[in-house]
From TrEMBL:
Keyword terms of this UniProt record: Repeat
Gene3D superfamilies found in the cross-reference section: 1.20.58.60
Alphabetical list of SMART domains matching this protein: SPEC (SM00150)
Region (Disordered): 74-104
Protein name, per record: Spectrin repeat-containing domain protein
Species name: Ancylostoma duodenale
Compositional bias per record (Basic and acidic residues), positions renumbered to this chain: 74-88
Amino acid sequence: MHSRNENLKKRWNAVLEKASQKRIAAEQALLDSSAFDEAILELESWIDSELAKNASAEANVHGDVDTVKSLIDEHKKRETERTSKQRGLDTVMSKAAKLSSKDSDENSHIKTVCGRVTDKWKLLEEQAHARSAALEDAAKQAADFDKKVHEILDWLVETEGKLAVSGSDFALALSRVEDIKTELHNNRDRRDNCLEAGREIQAKCHPRAEQPMKHWLRVVENRWRVS
């Protein structure tokens, strides 16, 4: 009798243990699912915020060297943050795969949420790559314009220095003036190319670059005029 009771007790305890394990597993699955939802919704909220920033951001990124450099620095900061979020995305997607294998009831919900977030992430990446390419082009044009401006200004300073002759040597002074007029005429294309490059940038520049671009174009025009 005692032996039979012990066997029944063991079998009952085994049933209770199995039921307890199932309950714990169910509770853990619920916790995991809840944690997953919280994590992926937080990530989706961040992605939505970044997409909203892109939608309201100024599309034009061209301008002078300093402005373009500033825009590139701002873009790099956002890219650094996006890289850190990429690790979070990978973790969440890995968690989603594990949850899907454990709970078939959650599969549809998990696939829907993951698909939506993945599509938004791809769009965010595409926009980031497009802005990177635009900034790269802007940097090249800004550097080219900056080089042209300073070459013109340096050449004008050098040319004006040739006028420094003795005040009593009027013949030499007159000859120098004529030579400089000829040089100015021969280099007019350089000036025009510089101004054309600047105006091309100005027509599509970022709002913060409007005043700097006006300044450099005015400097070139005025310095050429007084030479």
